[in-house]
Amino acid sequence: MIRRFLAQAALGLALVCAAPAFAQAPALTPSHLQVAREVAELTGITQTFSGIFNEFEKNVQELLATRPEMKKDSDAVVAALKPEADKRIDEMTKTAAEVFARKMNEADLKEVAGFFKSPVGQRYNAMRREAMDDLFSVLQPWTLQTSQYLFDRFSQEMRKRGHSL
User: In the list 16, 53, 97, 137, which could disulfide-bond 36, CB 3.0-4.6 Å?
Assistant: First the structure.
């Protein structure tokens, strides 16, 4: 109970202290937000958001694969949920645009958009997902190996200093 109160008090204090920073943030122009949204779309970030509904739909189909009597109703419910999902995806896309707009000025965002519209930018986007998949497949074992290596080295060094873990 006391921990919860302290956590709430700390959060309240943090929000009060942060309020002036939010209040002083410059207003973003519609054109700045538009080019930021364009960058989010061109770089494929918004595909991640829309992919969530596709993944949900796939999971529902897998979940009900052994229940064919539910297929018609589940398809109808999934279709009915699509506008709600689209609204949430649009909200997240707007948030992403605001984040980009707050991190980069409008001129820089226009240059980024120009790159992603260029032939080399389009080639980059076309290969990016496959390259990330390839990288992820080697990143997982590397992360585990590196983490184990660092912990082993940490243990060795701590033993040298008279500490056992």
Answer: 97
Query: Does pTM top 0.70 for this prediction?
Result: no
Identify the pLDDT of residue 19. Answer: 46
Cα 6 from chain centre: 30
Q: Classify residue 1 by its DSSP letter.
A: -
Which tens digit of pLDDT belongs to each residue from 76-100?
Answer: 999 999 999 999 999 999 999 999 9
Calpha distance 145→139 (Å, rounded): 10
Let me know if 23 is exposed, middle or buried by CB neighbors in 10 A (0-12, 13-18, 19+).
exposed
Q: What is residue 164's DSSP assignment?
A: -
Question: What DSSP assignment string belongs to 131-144?
Answer: HHHHHHHHHHHHHH
